[in-house]
Amino acid sequence: MEYLRLDHITVGYRKGEPVLTDFSMAVGEGELLSLLGPSGCGKTTTLRTVAGFVLPWKGKVLLQGRDYTRVPPHRRGFGLVYQNYALFPHLTVFENVAFGLRMRRVPREEIRERVAEALRMVKLEGLEKRLPGQLSGGQRQRVALARALVIRPKLLLLDEPLSNLDAKLRAGMRTELKRIQRELGVTAIYVTHDQAEAMALSDRVILMREGRIEQEGAPEEIYFRPATPFVADFMGFTNRFSARVEAVTEGMMVLSAGGMRIRASRAGTDLPPGSGVTVAIRPSSLRLYRGGEGIPGEVVSHAFQGESVQYLVSTELGELIVVHPETTVEFSPGEAVVVRADPEEVVVFPRKGDEG
Amino acid sequence: MLATRKAFILSAPALVVLVAFFVVPLALTLVESLRDGGGWTLERYASVLSQRSFRVALVRSLKLGALVTGIAALVGYPAAYAISKLERGKRTLLMSLIILPLMTNPVARTYAWFVVMGRHGIINRGLLALGLAERPIKILYTEGAIAVGLLQLFLPLMLLSLVSALENVPAELEEAARSLGANGFRAFRRVVLPLSADGLVIGGTLVFTGSITAYVTPAILGGTRVLMLSTLLYQKAMTLMDWEGATVVAVVMLLLAVGLNALLRRLRPREAM
Amino acid sequence: MRVPRSALAVLSLVLLFLLGPFLILFWSSFGTQASLAFPPKGFTLYWFRKVLGMRMFVDAFRVSVLLAFASTGAALLLGVPAAYALVRFAFPGKGFLELLFTSPIVVPGLVLGFALLSFFTAVARYPVPLRLFLGHMVLLFPYTVRVISASLRNFDPAVEEAAVSLGAPRWVAFLRIVLPNLRAGVMAAFILAFITSFNNVPISLFLSGPGVTTLPIQMLTYMEYYYDPTIAALSTLLILFTVAIIQLVEKTLGLSTTLGG
Fold first, then answer.
1. Pair C123, C156 in one domain
2. What percentage of chain B carries pLDDT values higher than 70?
3. What is the DSSP-derived secondary structure letter of residue A352?
4. Is C127 exposed, middle or buried (0-12, 13-18, 19+ CB in 10 A)?
5. Cβ contact, residue pair A103, C159, below 8 Å
């Protein structure tokens, strides 16, 4: 069921320099949608347009079919969570959370109950009297979340809410955020530049680039089948080289690159033999062997990364990065190796002169 | 466009007040200095510029301004350098002592020099006691007295801008220069000085502009005979009833101050605010 | 790093130069002679008693305090919304407004005082107290705008937006969320403006009138005729008053907040 729709939005901050041009997207009811992309791609502007803090030059914001384009932000009833929490520094945790209810003139007794409930949900009972300055980063983000949720928002807007937290805390908060959003069934838009976060949280991902949608789909789809070289690059397909299609069989392609053969499947099956392509492969989709079929090369260096080992391998196709999910270093610099790719995870794009 | 309207509504009261009681009066003064009877003329300027008293006052203002600025820079730099190297607590204490002359009632501040420089003041007593003078010498109502008073008033401004500039020079840089073989003075001259030049320029402009336009100090320590532009303006307007002449002096002072500020803005557009 | 001895020596001399005259003034305000001389003889509080009992100074003090309160308050009432407009909005003409709003600091006080006197004589024949009030307000306005702008810039606009998203109209968000967090800035602006008004000579010099004179002007007038230590005693009191204010500012706000602007 479609819940929110941005309809042909054009918006920007300076005359003649739109950030979004004729931008449309939709969010389903109860869905958690991520807007993913590098900084400057327009994801935050999209969020601020939905929130009502920037007025579109053209186009409409529709919520359940109602036109919200000109509704002032304080009458929209959307909950907002910011990267830097944006807590009211002079108010206690209780008063921070109660603020939205006070604005709605909710009776005192009900405020108490609803604030307590919201704090229970984010596991902050007992901290009501603290000031934001006396809380840890993780606690502040929970307060911000409780404050946005206590008003029972029609829409929850999250702007990189976890990026100020350290890695360990972030993973925990991610799960919890997902749990809470599910429990309440609130529709949410989640802005992030962190692909892992978007993958872990979202029902659907919109990957943006320069104010346009580059690819839209389920996390797995974007993760495994990037539609453009840009998406591939953003999703960590670090190894790239040029090749040509040699033969096409049942959903499988044989590519030749630098005199070597690589097999690929899944993507781009409609490319005729002879077409030039760009091949993109994740480091974790490559394996090193001591012999057999594959791309011959020499180990240049290795880096132990805790739960995996990263190798830099010099080949005819350039330097390739290979990540083995092992805890021991198996190959040493100078060693001759063969690199093989899982055909299922080799992505191929038609080459039109430029890769951008 | 919504933003423009809101911004306009919020700043409108201030705009009205400033236009009515700042822009208009200054503009009227400027216009008046250029008008005579019905038409436009530079005659008033010609007449004021031909007066010896005006030329003396102008030259004296510029001269004392330059002198005070020079001494403030020369003395201020080592002092500010020392302050910037002290630990936080001491630095704050020193700063609060240093700004005292700036924050004090100007008449009280200047009056203190009376006790120092007067006929029976501490300097003359000292000179007599040491046998260096036979009679009390005249210190008050001289250019030197004005310069001393101005220096006490404006040296703090120089110190404030130098200290804040020097605080922004990372100590590691200087240490790095020393570790590369520069001795203390060279490290200072090649690393610290260029990086804190902004503070010197800002402080210098403030001190110079302040010195050539200050009123209380020359009024008390220079008296009615050793006139600077400011005291000349007051004398023309209130004692000599030469309103036209005063208008010209006011415009000259205005142009000097605005010109110097514009120059500073052009040199250092960001810090000038 | 060690501070070079020579730099420390210069600093000591600077301090002596800046503060020495005040100490000498304190000392001489307790002397018993009727004219200023050094070293002062004897010890008396007579001059302090005298100055506190002098009608002309007490009245002028009252005028100065009232004037400082009124013009500072008015400058803040104009300055807070103006600073908000300058910091939070982008609009055509903003650069010009910024320039205009800070320019009363650039114009020499004496010139402004003179221009205002011409204006009040020729165009708007306002009563003396109103003249003083308007002149001081114009003078103080840039200080309030500058200090409040600085503290507004340090206040994350997202916090204000959060309040709006929770249902607060802009003005409610300003009063309940922004203003309480600007308290330090407003206090700093208030103190800076108050002292500036209280100590002002150039504007008051031209705008004071019979019966309505500020304290510094009254002191100047008195000094034209008398050389006794009355002014020394009064100056001592005023300097101590300033020291107290600096201490207060330092304890509560920190000097850099107030002066840094």
1. yes
2. 97
3. B
4. exposed
5. no
Q: State whether the Cα torsion B71-B73-B75-B76 is positive or negative.
A: positive
C64 and C161 assigned to the same domain = yes
Of B6, B171, B215, the CB nearest to C1: B171
| Residue B230, pLDDT above cutoff 70 | yes
Provide the residue range defining the domain that includes C53.
48-260
pTM above 0.90, yes or no: no
Query: Is the model's pLDDT at B63 over the cut of 80?
Result: yes
Q: Which domains does chain A have, with CATH numbers?
A: 2-231 (3.40.50.300), 232-350 (2.40.50.140)
**Where are the domains positioned within chain B?**
57-226
pLDDT tens digit sequence for C3-41: 788 899 999 999 999 999 999 889 888 988 877 777 788
Q: Residue holding tokens 């080459």?
A: A351
The order of strands in the sheet holding A336-341 is A286-289, A336-341, A295-304, A309-315, A318-324
Q: Is C94 on the interface with A (CB under 8 A)?
A: no
Whether chain A has a CB inside 8 Å of the CB on C159: the answer is yes
Q: Which of B17, B230, B273 sits opposite C137 (nearest CB)?
A: B17
From chain B, the residues in CB contact with C36 under 8 A are 114-115, 118, 120-121
Which residues lie closer than 8 Å to B235 by C-beta, 6 or more apart?
A: B224, B227
Average confidence (pLDDT) over A275-298: 91
Q: Which of B169, B139, B168, B153 is nearest to B209 (CA)?
A: B153
Question: CATH number of the domain that C175 lies in?
Answer: 1.10.3720.10
CB distance B95–C255 less than 8 Å?
yes
| Residues contacting residue A103 through CB under 8 Å, at least 6 positions apart | A74, C166, C167, C168, C172
User: Does C154 lie in the same domain as C64?
Assistant: yes
Q: Which of B22, B76, B85 shows the shortest C-beta gap to C138?
A: B22
Q: How many domains does chain C have?
A: 2
What string of DSSP letters covers A145-197? HHHHHTT--SEEEEESTTTTS-HHHHHHHHHHHHHHHHHHT--EEEEES-HHH
CA–CA distance, A4 with A46 (Å, rounded to integer):
13
Q: Do C250 and B96 touch (CB under 8 A)?
A: yes
The ipTM, to two decimals, is 0.93
- What residue in C sits closest to A78 (Cα-Cα)? C165
Q: How far apart are CA A295 and CA A297, in angstroms?
A: 6
User: Do residues A155 and A79 lie in contact, with contact meaning Cβ atoms separated by under 8 Å?
Assistant: yes
Nearest CB to C8; choose among B82, B113, B159:
B82
Tell me the nearest-neighbour CA distance from B92 into chain C, angstroms.
Answer: 8
B10/C166 Cα distance (integer angstroms): 24
CATH architecture of B57-226: Orthogonal Bundle (1.10)
Which residues pair with residue C212 across a beta bridge? C209
How do residues B129-180 score in pLDDT, each as one tens digit? 888 888 888 999 999 999 999 999 999 999 999 998 888 888 787 778 777 7
Same domain membership, residue C54 and residue C24 = no
Q: Which residue has the tokens 């004589």?
A: C121
Cβ B190 vs Cβ B182: under 8 Å: yes
